[in-house]
């Protein structure tokens, strides 16, 4: 039992954090969205070069052959940086699914940056950056269908988050690549991956929202003192930090090999709540300025609002956790139970 | 990152489980805060525990422990609570003063006090707060005046846990009469049976007397009973408080076992369980697991050479708030049985939940109120300015 990251895991996380600190500031993000775009092709090329897209793809298929625990902190860093490009979904959900489904050639093209595959899943029906996509992968519990961009009709569905370019998809063609039990299992696997990596981003957002609020509360003066010296402000931020402290280990346990679906559900709920509390506290601590687009607060609030509800709502996940609680043993010795 | 137990850890769990199955009393012992009889029954249990060398598994062997790591301590606690073994009457000693003496005590003090702490031969009370010094602990007024080879203690301590029946206490006293606030305080160990000590039980919200007022009038204590140097008391007490808020005092298994019992209580209501209550039961179980996972992560970090700092305050907030929510959910499921005393004919298991709820209400107050903990988090973890 060693509940700490290895040096290699820590180094990978720091590498990604360094890249994002250089290339994905909120100023960069504003510039991009102000120009009406949500995808920076240069930054994406940089991420492709780092090899992160294929982190979870086996080495035999051109990936890094890593596990979720190796990259979970990278997803958290992407959340904190509000990265608009879909690295986390492609790395965490799309490529592992294509690999599971035996789509080797397409996997290789995505890894090279020559193809973009957008995913439609029962827990995430709207796709991001679909007009850029060369392929659309549509999962239902009955069938998994792969379609070329020309075989679908996209309808833009604008989001409150300016960095999320969403579309709904209707299929005009495509090939079924998995059915019935295989499709059902794939929906479950991809749904769990989607929830886990959304949770990771939510945790990153939560901590970042606290950090910018602390910085603001040290600067902003009222009644002749920094507002951060008042207990009412302190207690808002301390409570948010408590939520983060007790979401983080749940997330990391949910990234372990063979973590139960219930633990992943737990992580999605805990990280979602932490992000909700932290971003709404950030609005409150920033006061009037918190309700504008002048500070960055609204960017974190809006991303958290979206991520908290896609890949399964809190109610969905709590029902999953409750079902396990009602049908399996629960005690101290089941804390690290594995999925059967 | 490896979240699987090693074979040795699995074997250790089996060893603890087997011992507990054989030794844990079948009938729960009477409360140690309600009668001398209950207190003595728990003292006798501590002796049994110590005979099996399970008193404090992380302590060095010379003081009655096994020198085990923190992961094994967690496994021990899990099996201890799962076996419904008696609560630890000497928790002030083994979880607070014990680690404090190991860090700040002299060799003579360790040899004199730790073994008898481990056996339960000497049960400890904490004597820090005073009527005017609660959250503002630095306002302590009780004095220790040096007189030859002794200190002479006088003053008024309050809310001293276990002090009604305990044998010894560790108290915070002003050794420098000219000093103010945090300076000039010292931590001194004193025998509660010394002449000049008057104990007055305080009736708590749950009808027990888990704490007492101590009136000290010219109580003579050998000067060697000071822990650390004169004037170091504040620093040492803050380290002790860290143990209290952090890892040791509230081990996660306690809440996992309670959440499991809550799930069974909810299950016993079958289809009648309201969806809102079902959600609250799930929340209780999730919170118990989140706390356990966090403590495992902290234990691993400490084993890898890390230190515990202000994040101990996040633990204290989390377990105290979750404990109340968990028990409140149980009372809501019990409905009109919730108010019944344990010996009411219709109470069934309701009394245990009511006891647990009343006990939980103290959580956000003792070991530093949660308001103080939030200040500590804001100032020391987040770096916000002092008020």
TrEMBL record, chain A:
Could you tell me the keywords of this UniProt record?
FAD, Flavoprotein, Oxidoreductase
Residue span(s) of domain Acyl-CoA dehydrogenase/oxidase C-terminal: 197-325
**Cofactor(s) required for function per UniProt:** FAD
Q: Domain named Acyl-CoA dehydrogenase/oxidase N-terminal: which ranges?
A: 6-115
The reply to whether Iron-sulfur figures as a keyword in the UniProt entry is no
GO MF = acyl-CoA dehydrogenase activity; flavin adenine dinucleotide binding
**UniProt-listed InterPro entries:** AcylCo_DH-like_C, AcylCo_DH/oxidase_C, AcylCoA_DH/ox_N, AcylCoA_DH/ox_N_sf, AcylCoA_DH/oxidase_NM_dom_sf
Q: Which SUPFAM superfamilies match?
A: Acyl-CoA dehydrogenase C-terminal domain-like, Acyl-CoA dehydrogenase NM domain-like
Which family is this protein grouped under? Belongs to the acyl-CoA dehydrogenase family.
The protein's name: Acyl-CoA dehydrogenase
UniProtKB/TrEMBL annotation, chain B:
Q: What is this protein called?
A: Acyl-CoA dehydrogenase
State the UniProt keywords alphabetically.
Answer: FAD, Flavoprotein, Oxidoreductase
Tell me the organism's taxonomic lineage.
Answer: Bacteria, Pseudomonadati, Pseudomonadota, Alphaproteobacteria, Rhodobacterales
What are the residue boundaries of the Acyl-CoA dehydrogenase/oxidase C-terminal domain, all occurrences included?
A: 231-382
Q: Where is the Acyl-CoA dehydrogenase/oxidase N-terminal domain?
A: 6-121
According to the entry, every stretch annotated as the Acyl-CoA oxidase/dehydrogenase middle domain falls at 125-219
Citing just one GO molecular function, the answer is: flavin adenine dinucleotide binding
Checking InterPro entries in the record gives: Acyl-CoA_Oxase/DH_mid-dom, Acyl-CoA_Oxase/DH_mid-dom_sf, AcylCo_DH-like_C, AcylCo_DH/oxidase_C, AcylCoA_DH/ox_N, AcylCoA_DH/ox_N_sf, AcylCoA_DH/oxidase_NM_dom_sf, Mycobact_Acyl-CoA_DH
Q: Which CDD domains does this UniProt record tie to the protein?
A: ACAD_fadE6_17_26
What is stated as this protein's family in its record? Belongs to the acyl-CoA dehydrogenase family.
Known Pfam families for this protein?
Acyl-CoA_dh_1, Acyl-CoA_dh_M, Acyl-CoA_dh_N
Record-level GO cellular component terms: plasma membrane
SUPFAM superfamilies hit by this protein: Acyl-CoA dehydrogenase C-terminal domain-like, Acyl-CoA dehydrogenase NM domain-like
- Give the cofactors, semicolon-separated: FAD
């Amino acid at each position: 039992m060693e509940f700490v990251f290895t040096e290699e895991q820590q180094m990978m996380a720091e590498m990604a954090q360094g890249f994002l600190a250089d290339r994905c500031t909120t100023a960069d993000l504003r510039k991009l969205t102000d120009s009406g775009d949500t995808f920076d092709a240069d930054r994406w090329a940089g991420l492709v070069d780092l090899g992160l897209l294929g982190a979870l793809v086996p080495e035999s298929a051109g990936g890094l052959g890593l596990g979720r625990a190796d990259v979970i902190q990278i997803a958290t860093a992407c959340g904190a940086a509000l990265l608009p490009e879909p690295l986390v979904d492609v790395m965490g959900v799309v490529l592992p699914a294509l690999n599971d489904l035996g789509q080797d050639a397409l996997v290789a093209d995505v890894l090279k940056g020559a193809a973009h595959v957008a995913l439609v899943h029962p827990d995430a029906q709207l796709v991001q950056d679909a007009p850029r996509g060369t392929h659309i992968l549509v999962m239902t519990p009955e069938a998994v269908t792969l379609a070329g961009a020309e075989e679908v009709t996209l309808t833009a569905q604008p989001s409150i988050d300016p960095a999320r370019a969403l579309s709904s998809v209707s299929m005009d063609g495509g090939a079924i690549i998995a059915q019935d039990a295989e499709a059902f299992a794939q929906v479950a696997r991809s749904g769990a991956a989607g929830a886990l990596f959304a949770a990771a981003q939510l945790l990153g957002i939560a901590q970042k929202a606290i950090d910018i609020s602390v910085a603001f509360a040290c600067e902003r003066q009222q009644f002749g003192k920094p507002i951060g010296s008042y207990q009412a402000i302190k207690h808002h931020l301390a409570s948010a930090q408590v939520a983060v402290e007790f979401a983080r280990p749940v997330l990391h346990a949910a990234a372990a090999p063979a973590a139960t679906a219930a633990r992943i559900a737990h992580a999605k709920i805990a990280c979602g709540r932490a992000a909700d509390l932290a971003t709404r506290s950030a609005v409150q601590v920033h006061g009037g300025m918190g309700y504008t687009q002048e500070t960055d607060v609204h960017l974190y609030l809006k991303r958290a609002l979206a991520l908290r509800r896609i890949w399964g709502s809190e109610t969905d996940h709590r029902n999953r956790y409750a079902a396990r609680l009602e049908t399996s043993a629960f005690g101290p010795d089941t804390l690290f139970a594995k999925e059967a | 990152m490896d979240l699987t137990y090693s074979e040795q850890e699995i074997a250790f769990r089996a060893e603890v489980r087997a011992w507990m199955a054989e030794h844990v009393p079948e009938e729960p012992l009477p409360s140690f805060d309600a009668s001398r009889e209950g207190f003595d029954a728990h003292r006798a249990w501590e002796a049994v525990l110590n005979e099996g060398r399970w008193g404090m598994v992380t302590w060095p062997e010379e003081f009655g422990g096994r020198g085990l790591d923190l992961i094994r301590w967690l496994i021990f606690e899990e099996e201890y609570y799962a076996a419904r073994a008696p609560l630890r009457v000497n928790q002030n000693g083994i979880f607070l003063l014990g680690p404090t003496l190991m860090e700040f005590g002299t060799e003579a003090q360790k040899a004199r006090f730790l073994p008898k702490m481990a056996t339960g031969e000497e049960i400890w009370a904490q004597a820090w707060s005073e009527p005017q010094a609660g959250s503002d602990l630095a306002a302590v007024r009780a004095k220790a005046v040096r007189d030859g080879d002794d200190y002479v203690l006088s003053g008024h301590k309050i809310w001293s846990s276990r002090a009604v029946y305990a044998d010894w206490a560790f108290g915070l006293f002003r050794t420098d009469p000219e000093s103010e606030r945090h300076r000039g305080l010292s931590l001194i160990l004193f025998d509660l049976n010394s002449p000049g000590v008057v104990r007055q039980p305080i009736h708590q919200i749950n009808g027990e007397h888990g704490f007492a007022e101590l009136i000290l009038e010219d109580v003579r204590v050998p000067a060697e009973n000071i822990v650390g140097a004169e004037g170091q008391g504040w620093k040492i007490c803050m380290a002790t408080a860290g143990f209290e808020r952090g890892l040791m005092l509230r081990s996660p298994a306690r809440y996992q076992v309670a959440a499991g019992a809550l799930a069974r209580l909810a299950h016993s209501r079958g289809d009648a369980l309201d969806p809102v209550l079902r959600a609250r039961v799930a929340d209780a179980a999730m919170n118990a697991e989140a706390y356990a996972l966090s403590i495992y992560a902290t234990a691993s970090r400490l084993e890898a050479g890390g230190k515990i700092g202000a994040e101990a305050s996040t633990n204290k907030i989390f377990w105290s708030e979750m404990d109340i929510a968990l028990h409140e959910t149980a009372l809501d499921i019990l409905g009109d049985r919730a108010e019944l005393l344990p010996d009411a004919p219709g109470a069934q298991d309701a009394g245990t939940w009511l006891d647990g709820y009343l006990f939980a209400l103290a959580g956000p107050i003792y070991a530093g109120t949660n308001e103080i903990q939030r200040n500590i988090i804001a100032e020391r973890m987040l770096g916000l300015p002092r008020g």
